[in-house]
Here is the input.
Amino acid sequence: MAMSDYKEIIRQYQNKSGGIIEAYNAIQKSYGYIPEDAVAAAASAFKVPKAEAYGVATFYSYLKIGPRGRNVIRICESAPCHIAGAEEVVKTLEKELGIKMGETTADGKFSLEFTECVGQCQATPVITVNRKPYEGVSAGNVAAILAEYK
Amino acid sequence: MVEEMRIVLRNLGKIDPLKIDDYINAGGYKSLQKAWGMSQMDVIQEVKNSGLRGRGGAGFNAGVKWGFSYNTPADQKYVVCNADEGEPGTYKDRIIMEKDPQSLLEGMAICGYAIGATKGFIYCRGEYPFVAELLNQAIKQAKDKGVLGDFDIEVRMGAGAYVCGEETALIESIEGHRGEPRFKPPFPGVSGLWGKPTVVNNVETFANLPSILEKGADWYKAIGAPGYPGTKVVTLTGDVANKTFFEVPTDTSIRDVVFGLGGGIPNNKKFKAVQIGGTSGGFIPEALLDTPIDFDSMGAIGATLGSGAVFVMDETRDIVDIATRIAKFFEHESCGKCTPCREGTKRMYELMVKMNNGQATAGDWALMNKLGSTMKQISLCGLGQAAPVPILTTMEHFNQEYKAKLLA
Ligand SMILES: Cc1cc2nc3c(=O)[nH]c(=O)nc-3n(C[C@H](O)[C@H](O)[C@H](O)COP(=O)(O)O)c2cc1C
Ligand code: FES
Here is the structure.
């Protein structure tokens, strides 16, 4: 996918009332994050001050300005996942990837983030990779999940 | 013996969610046609009489809410479906949308006709992109079939903010803003999306409507608890044998949910506590398990039905540790608009960490009580009002666990 796409994406949503969040979601889907310049472009396209375009992008925890790993792994730390052993999963992921929560691997492949409940609590603990949920995760099956993205 | 009763999940496993013909062959869209043959007022009256109350947490009578929008003249009105489903431990709206999306669309169209709206939005949480895709396909099928008449439905995605489940924050988000709750009044029914009369209802609330229209208010009113009739879809998590969802009449007791359908506590452990309604719900001890799950009965014991999440904890669980994790949730999710919530959730989390680490004093205990009751009373929205509830209810019912961690 072309990396200058964000202008085109913004254009698609420009005439939609309230479309700025839709545009951000679509940009993030394409890039994995929101480029700095896209925020300024969104501000002028949606006719809001830059501060507001920034304010919107930074309010939502799934939107991220600036580069991060191509694959974003999120670990649910809400109470049901917490008591089911989310901490063990965190430790295993940190060890497998050699990074801490909130960091990105040197090759830019993976980022680790916390999330709250992702609505898949029928088999806890739960992680998501690029918003795709994996249930019943344990120290034993983390490596197999990562292998899908390596 | 407690049994399931399926109204919103009546088509579960019987139809292919992405084949609209399956839905139609099962009687789908007859209720919408029936509604079109009635006056708008009669539809609203029928919904009012059924006693259907919101399934998203606040428990407001759906027909009464619709009446506000019907009675407010405007060139455009909106129907908004709250599919933000952010309460930890809840996944019932996802199940409803994944298994029977047309039920939701039909319910929204019934509401649209009743209040005079031609446009509906489904606000789907950012964690469910696959549900949004499915909904878009279902909407396309319904449009192609022409079953929705002139009612149009659009899916909008959230982007990870619990507070956007609050109806006015949700409206702000659809408008493209930060999801900060508005001051009420005016209520959305009168002035909502882009200042127009807007009905905001939960997925499960809408999914009840086709059956209510089909079988009538009297049929519905006779099911479950008289004050909060019908069924509730509950989702079981934590230390319970059957971690799954059930749809039960609202007069079912908590005990029947946890020990009957839920199959009790696994590994021969004993029950310690259950938190119902998601992370904002109160903790319930063994002594109160015979309470029916309906909205008012739960309120009477200082708990909530909320979203219907049922989070079970066995005897080995550390209540103070879990309450600390919950305090962190609220500290993270507070939108920061009002001071009691922004500062309160932060200080409460600090105090809970101190408590959990065995460094809190009797003075801190008193402070937590005072801070909690202040937040409950003066926070702008339900987030800040509910944030202290898990802490205050655990301090009340599991007092000894806190006392064991207090500095002498
Ligand atoms: C912090 C907060 C989060 C909420 N989250 C949700 C939610 O995820 N889904 C929902 O339907 N209602 C949620 N609500 C309740 C809504 O504000 C509103 O009452 C509801 O959508 C109305 O629909 P109903 O009457 O059909 O329940 C939330 C309220 C608050 C204060
Ligand atoms: S609590 Fe972790 S997915 Fe719901």
